[in-house]
Amino acid sequence: MTSPWTAGQVASVAPDASSLAAAQKLAGSWSQTGQVENGLWGLCQGSGSKPYQAIVDLSGPAYKCSCPSRKFPCKHALGLLLEWSTGRVPVASEPLDFAAEWLAQREGKAAQQPVPAAKAVADPATAQKRAERVASGLVELDLWITDQIRGGLASMDISWEALDGVAARMVDAQAPGVAGALRSLAGAVAGAENWPELVLGELVRLHLLVVAHQRMDQLPGPLRDSVRAHVGYPVSTESVMELPAVRELWMVMGSRITEEKRLFTRTTWLRGRATGRWAILLDFSHGSPNFSGVVPPVGHVVDADLHFYPGAAALRARLGATHGEAEPFTTLPAGNIAAALEHYTDAVSADPWLRSWPVVVTDVTPSYVDGSWFLVDKSGSALPAEGDSRMMWTLLGISGGHPVSVCGTWNARCIEAFSVFVNGQVMAL
User: Fold this and answer.
1) Domain count, the chain
2) Do 107 and 177 share a domain, yes or no?
3) What are phi and psi of 294, to 5 degrees?
4) Can you spell out the DSSP letters for 332-379?
5) The SWIM-type domain covers which part of the protein (predicted)?
6) Which residues contact 83 (CB under 8 A, 6 or more apart)?
7) For residue 391, what are the domain limits?
8) Phi/psi of residue 103, each to 5°?
9) The CATH number of the domain where 245 resides is what?
10) CA dihedral 273, 275, 277, 283 (to 10 degrees)
11) Do 18 and 44 contact (CB within 8 A), yes or no?
12) What pLDDT band is residue 153 in, cutting at 50, 70 and 90?
């Protein structure tokens, strides 16, 4: 039986603050709630005559509700989780009919997942054609970069349309990783006062990638894998799962869902309790954020095997076998600012195309000075911090002006927090 989540872990899956606030107001509106294994259900009385039917599959997690809300999870699913977190959802022998059908469908789909067939042997001719197409596209990209430098950044067209046009050419050249970098640059420079610095840094990074791709035969294996990953060569799930597993007690440090053109991406950050090694799990869902991948909630630790994608600074991984149930953790290994910067430096030294790296800094106080945010430790050392206004003020409110532990990604300019650890709980931001 899955242990109840804390209020902070429930908050970590909320789509926004208003949904969580609305869910908290539903206390006292519930009836016929119950739990069996990984399933929760309950009836929530709204303004209509018929109560809403809310169901949660904790193994996803996944959510279903009869309300018309387009948010996932809706306030009713969140409210049900809050009821469960406070111990007001009793254990049942079997689910109610409306919940049993959906939970059975979920279980059936998981059982019917096809067993991966033997890996097909790649057609050498097809692979060679792709490599030639990528190489040709990257040569064209390098000529464009040279033109921008010779003409001067002041005369460079940094509009979305111009950069997106170059990105589209990289898509045609089957280099989607490069295309994504160009589109990210277009978003980063919009309205940025230091846009020449951002543009120059990205052009240098892309030129280095072109040169590395041209000399891949001379690179060590892990760095060659990194080059291929940044260019955008595909890596099959089957080949990743065949790589040796890294078994650890993996702490779920944060989770975030983003959306672009109705493609939802869930990013989950894990940190090994014994080794301090970081890992990222990526799950995708089109149309709605109902992810099929099973990931323990933020604030839990799980004894599991991770299979890392190849690379010089391997970070992305896939979850393999788990050994026992996930359990909440209440302590966090210390990590100061100097150690965080050293870990980032080591990662970029191994893979110079990395744009950020996960870090944890303990005993830092969020501070707002002259319109800018900082994380300040007891010695007075500080890291610049960035994020949307709501998130940063939430972080300050949680800290109450006192030292907390912050997990985030450092990109050589600032840290973007994704969770905060305080009073023995991890809360996603």
Assistant:
1) 4
2) no
3) -90, 120
4) -----HHHHHHHHHHHHHH-TT---EEEEEEEEEEEEETTEEEEE-TT
5) 52-85
6) 27, 30, 33, 42, 89
7) 337-428
8) -65, -35
9) 2.40.50
10) -40
11) no
12) confident
